[in-house]
Every structure is written in C-alpha cells, then in structure tokens.
Write a structure and sequence with these properties.
about 625 residues; alpha/beta; TIM Barrel; Cyclin A, domain 1; four-stranded antiparallel beta sheet; about 40% helix
Length: about 625
C-alpha cells in the first residue's frame, strides 16, 4: 500500500542541529529563517525540547522560553510546533509529580507549543500516562513515541578471569546457556503503541533514536502499526549506521502518515534523512510531499552559511555535501537510475540492493558514510561519541573496545533497557566503569554511578525485562524494586542574590520552572540575568558576574588529609563548600557533569573541608583530587 500524501515533520531547528552540531544553533541564526518557515508548509516543525532548553542556557546564555515564543510569533498561529520530552522526567533525570508536569506543560502551551512528543526511555507506559492526559486537557496534542531498540547481541570479549563471555554474563563457568528469549519483537512495539492510543495519544511515533531500524523491519513494524492504529503514524529515524534513508522509503511504501526529515545542510549523517532525497523518491512513487519545496529551497540557501558558522561543532566541516536543488537541478542519469533501483528493490523486499543503492545516492551527494562501528555495536551514535570523548579525557582510549563489548552485559543486568537519553548515558557510563574495574582487577560493579543505582532500584520505572533480585540487592542493597517516591518531592526554594540587592534568583513562573527542571544550569543563567538587571541600574559600577566563583586551591602544598576524588572524569558545574566548612553526612558538596549526566558528590560522613582543588567549569579526569579534608 502506497500513501498518496506524506506529511513532513521538519527537525532542522531541534533534532537536526542537536544531532550534527551539539545544539549550538543561536537565536540570531534562527530568526532570519523563520519568515521562510511560515510559508514552507510543513505539517509540524520540531523546535524545542530534547537538549534545547539545557543547551541554549548552558552554552549560548539564551532563554529557552524566548526561543519558543519567538518562533511562534514569527511562523504564526496555524503552524504546528512540537517539542520532545521524557514523560515524567521532562528534561531532567528524576520523575516529577503531576503538579510539576502540569505547570510545565501549561507554560509551554501558553508560549506557543502545539504538540508534545512524549517518550520514556524504558517504554514504561506508566511514565507517559499522565503526560498524555495533561497535554490533551491543556489544549495541546499528545504525540506518544515508542522507542525502538534491539535485543543485545550475545558475542562480547571474554572476562579477564579466563572465563568465556557467557560465563561472565550469566555467572556460569562451563556450557553457555540457550540464547535468551527475544523481547523486542514487532508485537512488543505494536502493543506499546496500542496502549498509548488507548490512553489518548493523537499521534503515535516509532522513534528510532539510534537509526537501528533496518528497512525490512521498518516495513514490518510500520505496516502492522497502520493495520491496528486509528491515529496517524509517524516514523523518526537517523542515518548514523546507514539505514535511515532506505528505511524511510520502506516506511513510505507501507503507509506511514508523517515522516521526520531535515533540510539538506542539517540532514543525513547522524541526523534524519534529507527532505530533498525523500522528495525525489516520493516523486517517483507518485506520493505528494506536503511541503512547499520552493520555500524549503530558500531555507536551504540560508542554511549553508548557518552551518559554516557552526564549524567548531561540525564533525564533517571539511566534507560538506554538494549543493543540490531537487526542483531545478537535473540528476545525472546514473544517479537517477539509483533511485529507480532502490525503489524496485524496496518493492521486491531486497534489502541489500536497496541499501546499496541508497548508500550510493548519499555518497554521490557527499553525505557521510555509514558508521559501521555504531551499526555493529547497535548503540546510538551520541552514546558512542560520549564514550569516546570520556575515555579520551581519561587518557584511557585503549578501554573503548572493552567498554563497547560490555554494553550487552550491562543492558541485560539492568533489565534490557532501550538505549536513549538518559538510559544510553547511564549504560554507557556504567560500561566504562566496568571496563575500568576490570583493568584494575576489581570485581564487576565496584564503581557504580548514582544514576545506575537508581535505574536498578526501579526509580526510572519498570524495565522491559525483570532485573534479577540478587543483582538488585548487590547494587542497591535491597532485592525489592522501589519506585521513585514523588510524594517526597519538594519544590526547590528560590534563593535570593545578596550581591544584586537581594533580589530573587527566579522572578517569574518561567524561571521557576527552569530552576525545577535544570537547577544547576538555570542557576548560572539566571545569575547572569540578575547581574544584567543590576548593572543597568548601576551604570557607573557594574559588578562582574563571576566575582563569586570558587577559585581552586594550589595543589603544590603536599596532601596530608583524606582526599575525595572524582569517581569518573567530567566537568565541575557546582561547588557548594569552601575551605573550613564542616559538612554533614549526605550533604551535597559538589556537582560534576560526566557523559551528559550531572552527578552529586555527597559526604559519606561528617568532615571538615581543608581545601578545594578544582574550579567551576574545570574538566577533571577519573581519580583527580577534588576536595581535601582535615
């Protein structure tokens, strides 16, 4: 069955820039594009959520609320704008009570949001239930996403104790057990989608965050979703391992209603397919792409220079794709034939030929080659790149292969969680910890992150497969699954800022929500705003915003006291103590960011701080000294 019309969700301003340029797209580069977007005819524009609220504050010193409002004002009231959220976690790493969800969704819709795409990293229906209800009740459109993942491969490196992989994985020394039952079947995804539709989802998305849906699997799952769902079906994928374009063709052939794409300069590679290539396929298939391709072309012309301005964050800055306009440029005969070859192969179910033709098309236009390591490891590209960066910072790049091979073990131990933010970062970080444990000769899971403990405990929700109670007890001290108790949630107090006449750090609902969801990043961002306001009142004596920053102590003096060291490399984002402070057991002394996660460093008993070895924003390696105690 072939769709006669295909709706497009444009990801360029959110997932496109996040996937290719580390979410560094500035408001000043977005503004000139918006009048063109107003008439581009996209069904949906994804412009917010994901890493945007965090990144625009953290790296660009911009307001995420201003970004959403400015886009709404420019494109007009009729354009559907969407954002991405993690269900009960929103943009954070802990579940929030319904009151926080309601306050956030209400403010987002007031500021111009139309659609909230809601996903849960565990595909736990309980974690999206309230978000679907609230979005619908508040006048938005609930788009529920089922996260695609695969069962982990069984092969991996042998453990250092001279036992085979299966022995290390299952604790047996001799014969390997039978392969575990497959969890992530077509029926698994279809049943999740049906549950979401019953809860009130107005759109259901198959969200392939790692680009792991191969073409035949895309055809199978999309076809089954279209048979049973009454609401529109959206397909979201990435091109990282080389499946994205071919799988999108298969989705179109099997009746998908909405396809997620990016505009040329922000497409392909680790992002979603380029709309221009999708358009050519649809022309040949007799499918109408519901977008104004003339306006898309005008946006594309502007985006080339925008991308060049992002060179510092562009992994392919020296390998730009060729310029191409599908409305006016004639394809070379051999390239045109590749499109026909791909379509014929897709209709025949010949996956290898389809992939070969799509890869040749992408190579002709200069798009990145498939990432074979990601394809074989079956992990998201962002997770892989985070692990590479983390190990490089630790001068432990030699452990990458070991860490990658330990991912299946960590996933199985932790209940076969899908690999999507935040679980991809949690599993990746724990695989690195496991590799370091083994290198040091320590037992597995000697070093566990707070997030991994919370995941195994049950605070993130129900995992797709049950966790062995003995393993849960080993990691958490309790064999019983314990959900996060949202009744204990306390809204953070908004501090005053003495150096700026004692004003409140957050001055309105928007800013209070930022403090609730992203407290460490929002703290610095809002201090800058209060400093600007204070400076405007005191033109002759403008204080420096960084006057209160903690300065690291000299490390030249010999260390004589007990030292608190970094359990993993990262960047210091918060320092809450100073020399001479007496800290209590459980008190948060410092926060550092590692592999996109913020980690609280707490005192394990009552202590007195002698000196601090690090400063705000400093990058530290594993075992680096952070605090010395008396």
């Amino acid at each position: 069955m072939v769709t006669k019309k295909l709706k497009i969700r444009d990801l360029t301003l959110r997932d496109g820039q996040q996937s290719l340029f580390a979410t560094r797209l500035k408001q000043q580069d977005i503004d000139p594009l918006l009048p063109l977007y107003k008439d581009a005819g996209f069904y949906i524009m994804e412009v917010w959520g994901g890493a945007v609220p965090d990144s625009v504050m953290r790296y660009l010193d911009e307001s995420p609320w201003v970004r959403l409002r400015s886009i709404r004002e420019a494109v007009g009231p009729n354009q559907l704008l969407s954002a991405l959220s993690r269900g009960r976690n929103l943009f954070g790493y802990v579940p929030y009570p319904d009151s926080v969800l309601e306050g956030f969704y209400k403010e987002a819709i007031k500021n111009g949001l139309s659609i909230m795409r809601i996903f849960d990293a565990l595909n736990d229906i309980d974690n999206v239930r309230e978000s679907i209800r609230l979005i619908n009740e508040l006048g938005g459109i609930a788009d529920a996403a089922v996260c695609y993942t695969v069962d982990p491969k069984e092969e991996a490196a042998p453990a250092p104790e001279k036992k085979g992989f299966f022995a290390s994985l299952f604790g047996k020394k001799e014969q390997a057990p039978a392969a575990p039952e497959k969890i992530f079947t077509d029926e698994y995804f279809v049943n999740k989608a049906l549950e979401m539709e019953r809860l009130g989802a107005k759109i259901v998305t198959l969200k392939d965050m790692a680009g792991l849906v191969n073409p035949l699997r895309a055809a199978s799952i999309i076809g089954k979703l279209k048979q049973v769902l009454k609401v529109p079906v959206d397909f979201h994928t990435h091109c990282t391992p080389g499946y994205g374009l071919a799988s999108s063709v298969m989705a179109i052939l099997n009746g998908v209603d909405i396809l997620d794409t990016n505009i040329w300069w922000f497409g392909e590679g680790s992002a979603a397919p380029a709309i221009e290539l999708v358009y050519i396929f649809c022309q040949k298939l007799g499918v109408e792409v519901e977008a104004n391709m003339e306006k898309v072309g005008e946006i594309r012309e502007r985006l080339e220079s925008v991308r060049r301005n992002l060179a510092d964050f562009d992994l392919n800055k020296d390998k730009f794709p060729k310029r191409f306009d599908p409305l006016h440029d004639k394809l070379p005969a051999e390239v045109d034939a590749l499109f026909d070859k791909a379509i014929a192969a897709a209709k025949a179910g010949d996956e290898n030929t389809l992939l070969e033709a799509c890869h040749a098309i992408e190579a002709h236009f200069g798009f990145p080659k498939p990432n074979l390591l990601v394809k074989e490891a079956e992990v998201p590209g962002g997770m892989y790149s985070n692990m590479v960066a983390q190990l490089k910072a630790l001068n432990s790049s030699d452990l990458l292969d070991d860490a990658m091979k330990l991912i299946p073990k960590v996933r199985r131990d932790a209940g076969l969680v899908p690999l999507v933010t935040p679980t991809s970062q949690i599993v990746g970080a724990q695989a690195v910890n496991l590799a370091i444990d083994r290198k040091k000769g320590n037992p597995d899971y000697t070093n566990t992150s707070n997030q991994f403990i919370s995941l195994v405990k049950g605070e993130y929700g129900h995992t797709p497969a049950p966790i062995d109670p003995a393993f849960r007890e080993k990691i958490t001290g309790d064999p019983v699954e314990r959900a996060y108790d949202v009744s204990k949630y306390k809204k953070p107090e908004i501090p005053t800022v003495p150096e700026f006449d004692g004003v409140k750090l957050a001055t309105n609902t928007e800013e209070e929500l930022l403090m609730e969801l992203l407290p460490n990043v929002a703290n610095k961002f809002l201090r800058n705003r209060r400093a600007e306001e204070y400076a405007a009142k005191q033109p002759k004596e403008q204080p420096k915003a960084e006057e209160t920053a903690t300065v690291a102590a000299s490390a030249d003096e010999p260390i004589t006291g007990e030292v608190f060291r970094a359990p993993m490399g990262g960047r210091i984002v918060e320092i809450n103590v100073k020399a001479g402070d007496k800290v209590k057991k459980g008190q948060k002394m410092m926060v550092y960011e590692a592999m996109k996660m913020e980690n609280d460093l707490e005192a394990d008993r009552d202590l007195t701080v002698k000196r601090i070895f690090v400063a705000l924003d400093e990058v530290v390696g594993t075992d680096a000294p952070l605090i010395e105690f008396e």
